[in-house]
Every structure is written in C-alpha cells, then in structure tokens.
From TrEMBL:
Protein name: Catalase
Region annotated Disordered, chain positions: 1-32
GO molecular function: catalase activity; heme binding; metal ion binding
SMART domains on file: Catalase
Active site: 93, 166
UniProt xrefs under InterPro entries: Catalase, Catalase_AS, Catalase_clade2, Catalase_clade2_helical, Catalase_core, Catalase_haem_BS, Catalase_immune_responsive, Catalase_large_C
Enzyme class, broadest EC rank: oxidoreductase
Length: 716
C-alpha cells in the first residue's frame, strides 16, 4: 500500500521531508553513497570496475559449459559477501522500525538538571527513535499483542543519551537477573519453537503466576496498549527511575514520559489478529508513509520528579520498576517535544545497526539504584558485542555528533585512525587528558551508600497487587471488557489446566468479577471469593481514553471509498476533496483496478477513475473508515458482491466510522443490519455507532464520526 499512498502525496510535503537536515543527518550524508548516481558503475569491494556480474568465469566452448574456475575473484567476492550478510538479530526487540527527528524544549528544567538537552531551549537535538515488538523475531508480524519498544537516541552536544523505553510504564520483573527467565518463558517454547511472537502459551502464563511481581505488568499487557493502532499513537516511558543533578549539585529522582499529539489509540483485537496475516508490516508502513507524506508524528516530553529528600515518602519503593508513580502524587511536567521527520536511507545500516545502551547518559543525568536499571546497564553494552562487534560505537548511526577522543584502541574493524605517540593517560605530552568539570566533564554524584552485601530486595519491593488493582479500577468499561476478552483469548491457548487455574486465582486477588468472567470462559474452578481486600482506588493517566488529542483530528486517517461502474461522481469527488483537505488519506477501492466509470460518463470522452486497489486486494481492517457513494448501477453491482458487503459489515463490527450517500445508504444499512441493531433517524442523516449516511454528501457529519472513531469503539 505504501507506494500508492506515496503517489498521492503532494510535492510540497515531499520537499518538507527532505529539508530536515540535522547535525546527525549531515554527518551521515558524508558516509552515504547514492545507488542512483548516474555515473556509478559496479565495482568490486576493492574498487575495480566490473564488466560482467552475471556469469562465473569458466572453461567453456560454444557447445559445452565446462567447470567454473575458483580463480574468479569477482564471483567469489559476490557469493562470499552474500553468505555473510546476516548478523544475529536482537535477542529481544528483534523486529523494529525507526526514524530520525528532533527534540526541542519549550521549558528549561534547569531547576533540577544541568543537562544541556533538558535546559537549553534554543537547541534542536537530533534523535533516532526505534520502535519494536519484544517477543517476535525479525520477520514476525507488527500487530501482535505485545509490549512495544520506544528507544530514543538523543545526539546531544555533550554525547549520546539513550533513553531505551517501552510503551508501557512498568515491567514484569524487579531485578535484572530475572530477565533471561521472563524472556525465555515468553519466547517460543524450547521443544518445538511454538508459538511465534505470542504471549498466549503455557510458559508465558506459568512465569506470570510464579512471579507475583509480574501481576501489574501482565494487566497492562492484557490492555489495549499492547495492540496499538500505530506507533504514532502510543506513549513512551523510560520505565526505570533515573536521577537528575542540577548546577548546585542537588539530586532528584525522575521518570521520563512521551505522550503522542494524536492521542493514544488501539485496534480492536479482531482487527489486530487479521492484520497480522493481511499486512504483517502494517505499523512499519504506517510510520514510513506518515513521515513521507509530511505528517510528522509528535510527542510531548514530560518528567516526573521526586526530590531526594522525599525518596521514602511513598508506600511503594520509587526504585521498583513494577510500579507507576501515580500522577496525583507526582504530576507530569511536560517540558519538550519530540518530532520524527525523516525516514532512514537504509534499513540495515541504520535501523538494524543502531545500538542503544541505558548506560549512555550525559552530564546532569544519572542512574538510580533501581535493580532493573543496574542490570540493564550491563546487558545492553554487552549484547552489542555479539551483534555488532567491539567497535560498534564507530558505526555511522551510533557515532555522537560531538568530538570523541580517548585511549581505547584497536579491536576488530576499528575505523578511527588516531594520530600520535601515546595511547595511555597520564602521558608526558599531556595528550588527551580528562576534562575538568568546567569543561563539561561528567561528575559522578557522591551518593552515600551503606548496607549489607546480600541477594535481597528492600521491604517495599514485596507488595505486588495494589497497583494491578489500581490499573484495573482505572479502566473505562470498554477497556475492562477488552481486558477480560484478552485474558480469555490468552488462557484459551494454554492447554495445561494448572496454568490457567492458577491465573484465575491470581485474578481473584485483583478483582473477583474479572476472575469469575475469565474462569467462566477458559475453564477451571470459578473463584468464589475476593482473595485480597480491594482498595477500590483509581488514578488518572492510566486509561488511554484520557489521551484524546486536545483538537480532534482526522489527519492521516485512512478512508476506503468503494465504487463500481455507475457511481455518483459528485458524491465521490465531494467526499474525497473534503477528506484530503482535512489531511485524511482517501483511497479508492474498486470492484477491479482497471478504470471505473461514473454514472453517465462516456467511455470515449471520459477519463474514468483508476482505483488504488480492488476489493479482493485489500480488506476493511487496513482502513480507519469506509465510505460508499451512491449511484444506482454501482450499488446494484456492490449489492451482489459478497466481498463488498463483507467490507462494510466487517468495518461495522470493528466499530469504524462508515459513511454513505444516495443509494449507498440502503446498501450500508442492509450490510450492517445485524440482529438487535437499530438506527435512529433524524432528517436524512442517520447517525448511530459511527455510521453516517445521507441522501446527499455530508462531509462534515462524516468527518465528525471519523474523528470519533475511537469514541465509537468505546461502545463495545
Ligand atoms: Fe531491554 N534489552 N532489557 N528492556 N530493551 C534489549 O539490548 C534487558 C527492559 C528495551 O531498539 C537488548 O540492544 C534487560 C525494560 C528496548 O535496539 C538487551 C532487562 C525496557 C529494546 C536488553 C531489560 C526495555 C531493548 C537486546 C531487564 C523498557 C530495543 C538488544 C533488566 C524500559 C532497543 C539490545 C532497540 C533491547 C536487556 C528490560 C526496553 C538484551 C537485561 C524494562 C526498547 O540488552
């Protein structure tokens, strides 16, 4: 679909994209070759121009093909390079896609940090952001139920700052040493490598039960957050507790949050399931095409700050990554904006080779004793070795935009050539000395530490269910219904009764009615009592319904307009123009991809319309909305077409905005007229559950319904 979207994009938008040349993009340009350069000729890797890259050098006669010669350096180089193209995929977050952008501040946080990137409001810091799924391998589908990675590399003037986050604010475990266990349990099972990119299996849920600390996170994993509509419509969270240090040397604890301008939106599960097969690259394409079309995704950047003196004021440990800091207790202070505005030039050298490390921080930012973060600081640095080799920080995408100088040397594939007689410090030349603090040198915060060396966690780390209940209580009724259904789906895929029976009993610690509904569906004893007294509290910011954009918008929403010969050209052109003007992306879906003719159009003199796709090539799941213009003959054809009826019916089932005019009204009504459904009629506009139909084009009502697309979904 990407290519079709691109062809409909204006030239202005295309040039807007090309104009984004941050310091990082300029640095990369110096390393970039253009395969479309007309003067370019195929050479070997050692630069010799080649005349033939198709035939191995061999001993042959006119009528006999003889043996190939080992001496052919061109053939051997070509095959040898191909044989070694693959590198190990990331052990987690293997499937991802990324983009360049910029980070700007609208408010300085100099009261809490000295970091230039968080205090200098005149700066534009280049960023590279990689989104990912966690469990699936590189070739798995985008829309599976999974946590999404949200890893940001800030190329700051003081060095790279990597904020390696997720779209969920908490994690499954408290101590990094448990990471191999939680990932082994989630990944395909060891005996048969089934299932791919799914948490719906025995081992995943066995782990969840065995680790009560995972309860809060698995409730998030069962919410709509794990089936996002788009990477552009997800929040990002640093999850771990970091620290900020200001010019006075005062330290505070901090959590980092990104909130999308477009609001937080999700699929319904049935859509996500179908798209995983129909278009496994759905999220990847969505991000790519939005950026190519100039609809740059934006996030507000916020911090939650707790001064060091208040570290112990909470009934949870603020270093425990299985807990959120409720906004009522620690408000979010939004201070900046992140925008993505440029797609990578090459997937492998940029999206695949980018390497993030939680240990990469800059002056003014520090770690905390969060035991998950401490272990992550070892792991990320370590894993890059097996993926990329020791000199991975020299790869173009990973290089800082500020100067790098030190006495580290050598190792496989070293690129930098460092001139000079010494490679150690101190040296008699005083060459490359450490920086003084006033020169921007990193200062470690002199934290006081005392304790007993032991494999334990503090007392407050022992409570695991309060926030799981807080999260569930804070969901809207449709979100709760979705969670119940999600648990029903997942546990249905577990065939070991001990697994689902135990989870049913764990759910009874959170909410008895939830546990009962799930047990009813998946089997096992129905829990009869609330296993832990409920606190019945709610908190703000947890339900994604709270993140509707301030200004509702249909920008970048994809609308399928279905036509057959004899369609009403006035209605068709009217809705298309109205949608385009509002920034939406209309697509024409015909009964065929060859020209379709409007009512009354003369095939000899008319132009016809070449649809973007035909009804069998796409499905309603791939669009946010469906519109059916009138035209007696067109509707007569569509009414006899099972696929056309299915398009509308399925879109209705997925609670999407559906529009129609003229004869299209009856077609839509008939297609959606499910038992028990009724439509309220006022005038000639019928508007119910996001369905807008009218005798004449009513673009305004339709656009309103489309803006409310998620609102309509809330009726489930
Ligand atoms: Fe990761 N994680 N992780 N993780 N993680 C990796 O590093 C690890 C955790 C996250 O787009 C690996 O470069 C440990 C939390 C993202 O390249 C590895 C622990 C969060 C990405 C690793 C965690 C994340 C990774 C694999 C438990 C959210 C993809 C490849 C303490 C805040 C980054 C790599 C990208 C990748 C280890 C837990 C997010 C193995 C030990 C919590 C977004 O180093």
């Amino acid at each position: 679909m990407a290519s079709t979207i691109l062809s409909s994009i204006s030239d202005t938008a295309k040039s807007a994209m090309g104009s984004e040349r941050s310091k990082k993009v300029q640095q990369l340009a110096a390393e970039t070759k253009d395969v479309h350069d007309k003067s370019a000729r195929i050479t070997t890797d050692y630069g010799v121009k080649q005349t033939n890259t198709d035939d191995w050098l061999r001993v042959a006669t006119e009528d006999k093909t003889g043996p190939s010669l080992l001496e052919d350096p061109f053939a051997r180089e070509k095959i040898h390079r191909f044989d070694h193209e693959r590198i190990p995929e990331r052990v987690v977050h293997a499937r991802g896609s990324a983009a360049f952008g910029k980070f700007t501040l609208f408010e300085s946080a100099s009261d809490v940090t000295s970091a230039g990137v968080l205090t200098d409001t005149s700066r534009e810091t280049p960023v590279f952001l990689r989104f990912s799924t966690v469990l699936g391998s590189r070739g798995s589908a985008d829309t599976v139920r999974d946590v999404r990675g949200f890893a940001v590399k800030f190329y700051t003037d003081e060095g790279n700052w990597d904020l390696v986050g997720n779209n969920i604010p908490v994690f499954f475990i408290q101590d990094a040493m448990k990471f191999p266990d939680v990932i082994h349990a989630g990944k395909p099972e060891p005996h048969n490598e089934i299932p791919q990119a799914q948490s719906a299996h025995n081992n995943f849920w066995d782990f969840q039960y065995m680790h009560p600390e995972a309860t809060h996170m698995f409730m998030w994993a069962m919410s709509d957050r794990t089936i996002p509509r788009s990477y552009r419509m997800m929040q990002g969270f640093g999850v771990n507790t970091f620290t900020l240090i200001n010019d006075k040397g005062e330290r505070s604890f901090v959590k980092f949050i990104f909130t999308p301008e477009l609001g937080v939106h999700s699929f319904v599960w049935d859509e996500a399931l179908k798209i995983a097969g129909q278009d496994p690259d759905f999220h990847r394409k969505d991000l790519w095409t939005a950026i190519e079309s100039g609809a740059f995704p934006k996030w507000k950047f916020g911090i939650q700050v707790i001064p060091e003196s208040k570290e112990n004021d909470f009934d949870f440990d603020i270093l425990d990554a299985t807990k959120v800091w409720p906004e009522e207790l620690v408000p979010i202070r939004y201070i900046g904006q992140l925008e993505l505005n440029r797609n990578p030039d090459e997937f492998f050298t940029q999206t695949e080779q980018v390497a993030f490390c939680t240990s990469h921080i800059v002056p003014g930012i520090g770690f905390s004793d969060d035991p998950l973060l401490q272990g992550r600081n070892f792991s990320y640095f370590d894993t890059q070795l097996s993926r990329l080799g020791i000199n991975w920080q020299e790869l173009p995408i990973n290089r800082p935009v500020c100067p790098v100088m030190n006495h580290n040397r050598d190792g496989a594939m070293r690129h930098t050539i460092t001139k000079g007689k010494v490679n150690y410090w101190p040296n008699r030349f005083e060459a490359a000395p450490p920086a003084k603090p006033e020169e921007g040198g990193y200062l470690d915060y002199p934290a006081k530490i005392a304790g007993i060396k032991a494999r334990t966690r503090s007392k407050k780390f022992q409570e695991h269910i309060n926030q799981a209940e807080l999260f569930y209580n804070s969901m809207s009724p449709p979100e709760k219904a979705h969670m119940t259904a999600a648990l029903g789906f997942e546990l249905d895929h577990c065939d070991d009764p001990v697994v689902y029976e135990r989870i049913n009993s764990r759910l009874a610690e959170i909410d008895l009615s939830l546990a009962q509904s799930v047990a009813e569906m998946v089997g096992g004893d129905i829990p009869q009592e609330q296993k832990r007294p409920k606190h019945n509290q709610t908190a703000k910011g947890l339900s994604q319904t709270e993140y509707a954009p301030a200004e509702p918008t249909i920008a970048t929403r994809m609308v399928a307009i279905i036509i057959a010969d004899g369609y009403d050209a006035i209605a068709y052109n009217g809705i298309k123009a109205a949608l385009t003007a509002a920034g939406a992306l209309p697509f024409t879906i015909g009964v065929r991809r060859n020209k379709i003719w409007a009512a009354g159009e003369d095939k000899n003199t008319g132009k016809g319309v070449v649809p973007d796709h035909h009804l069998e090539g796409m499905r309603s799941t791939m669009f946010d909305s469906v519109f059916v213009p009138g035209g007696a003959k067109s509707i007569e054809t569509l009414s006899k077409n099972g696929r056309a009826i299915h398009w509308v019916r399925e879109a209705f089932g997925h609670l999407k905005a559906i529009g129609a005019t003229g004869e299209g009204v009856k077609f839509v009504r008939d297609a959606c007229d499910l038992p028990g459904m009724s439509f309220s009629t006022s005038g000639d506009v019928v508007d119910s559950y996001g369905v807008v139909t009218a005798a004449k084009v009513q673009p305004e009502s339709f656009k309103e319904a489309l803006k409310m697309a998620k609102g309509a979904k809330d009726f489930v």
